[in-house]
Amino acid sequence: MKLGVFNPILGNMPFETMLDTLQTLGVEAVEIASGGYVGDAHCKPAELLADAGALGRFKDAIAARNLTISALSCHGNPLHPDMAVSRPHQRAWEDTVKLAQKLGVQTVVTFSGLPGGGPDDKVPNWVTCAWPTDHARAVEWQWNERLIPYWKREAEFAEAHDMRVAIEMHPGFCVFQPKQALALREATRSNVGVNFDPSHLFWQGIDPVKAIRYLGDSIYHFHAKDTALDPINMPIKGVLDSDPYEDIAGRSWVFRSVGYGHPESDWRDMVSALRTVGYDFVMSIEHEDGLASRQEGLFKAVQTLKNVLLKETPDTAWWTG
Questions:
Q1: Whether the bond into 119 is cis, omega within 30 of 0
Q2: Cβ 300 vs Cβ 258: under 8 Å
Q3: DSSP states of 156-188 as a string?
Q4: Can you tell me the distance from the alpha carbon of 88 to that of 77, in angstroms, rounded to the nearest whole number?
Q5: Quick check: 321 pLDDT over 80?
Q6: Neighbours of 281 (CB within 10 A)
Q7: What pLDDT does residue 316 have?
């Protein structure tokens, strides 16, 4: 496996300074944000597609540091009922797929998207329970009328550009847990898979190791981000916490640097499970820790994962003779 970093954590740096920082940390891969909610500080797909010279310099800067691109990431909501949101997210997605092909990148990371709860809604509607039955009908409409038709079309578009779609299971979107991820894959195309981020599963009560085994070869990319479950607040408030992320002392859970939410042994178990299902690619650090600086939080995550990753190709069962 390779150690990677998702670049928004260093989005306050110039592009080449960011790459130099990753090289100094001993990182081998970079996942690059290309639009949507994660921004495009280091990679503006439309500009790179229009300027062959800029595209060449972009590629050369990465190669000069002995880095590879694990994925381009366009985390948007092209199903948003407000076209002022959905249209630019859709353009960013399409340009990202085209750019990834030119860069020789195999995977684009994104969200499933979330429409309204019906054709007249003006805001997205994330449903978390089946009753009253209005909610169940809303979910059925979202999947049958919006989500599945959209991803049938977009998965075909991605496949035409030799691209895999790695959908991040994220609350607030239609696909937020493993059963839904496989349901969307089965309803669309086999190039629709998963960007596995355990941080969003921890607080839902989902066991990442069991989820990895369940998802199997549909895992196309991996985000290394941790979550701490607050022992005081969670038993009182539950897991559905809409309080601001800045209110660390008051929330049920918060994102943490790898190793500060769950012990290193949990991450070792995830690495072993990933190898068991055939994933031997990149663990890409995503850092959103409100208790650590950008640099220190990233450095701590790198340290932890260097102890955890299995990098060499496993041997056959040599001990059997």
A1: no
A2: yes
A3: HHHHHTT-EEEEE--TTSS--SHHHHHHHHHHS
A4: 9
A5: no
A6: 19
A7: 85
Residues 252/234, Cβ–Cβ less than 8 Å: yes
Which pTM was predicted?
0.97
Q: If pLDDT is split at 50, 70 and 90, which confidence band does 112 have?
A: very high
pLDDT tens across 274-297, in order?
A: 999 999 999 999 999 999 999 999
Q: Provide the terminal-to-terminal Cα distance of the chain, rounded to the nearest Å.
A: 27
Amino acid letter at 16? E
226, 232, 221, 240: which is closest to 282 by C-alpha?
Answer: 221
Q: What does the alpha-carbon distance between residue 32 and residue 295 come to, in Å, rounded to a whole number? A: 18
> Tokens 């970093």, residue?
5
Kindly state the tokens that stand for 42. 């280091």
* 120-168 confidence digits (pLDDT tens): 999 999 999 999 999 999 999 999 999 999 999 999 999 999 999 999 9
**What b/e sequence results for 60-71 when a residue is b if at least 16 CB atoms lie within 10 Å of its CB, and e otherwise?**
ebbeebebebbb
Closest Cα to residue 72, out of 212, 282, 280? 282
CA distance 3 to 281: 9
In 3D, which of 17, 15, 37 has the Cα closest to residue 25?
17
Closest CA to 185 of 160, 220, 211, 161: 220
Between the alpha carbon of residue 230 and those of residues 170, 211, 304, the distances in Å are 20, 22, 22
Buried b / exposed e over 149-163, threshold 16 CB at 10 Å, is ebbeebbeebbeeeb
Q: In this structure, are strands 253-256 and 226-229 parallel, antiparallel, or unpaired? A: antiparallel
Residue pair 291/229 in contact by the 8 Å Cβ criterion: no
- H helix or E strand, kind and range, residue 72: strand 68-75
Measure the CA–CA gap between 209 and 220, rounded to whole angstroms. Answer: 16
Give the dihedral sign, CA 144/145/151/153: positive
CA 118 vs CA 129, 135, 232: distances in Å: 16, 10, 38
In sequence order, which residues have a C-beta less than 8 Å from that of residue 282 and are 6 or more positions away?
A: 1, 2, 3, 4, 28, 29, 31, 70, 71, 221, 222
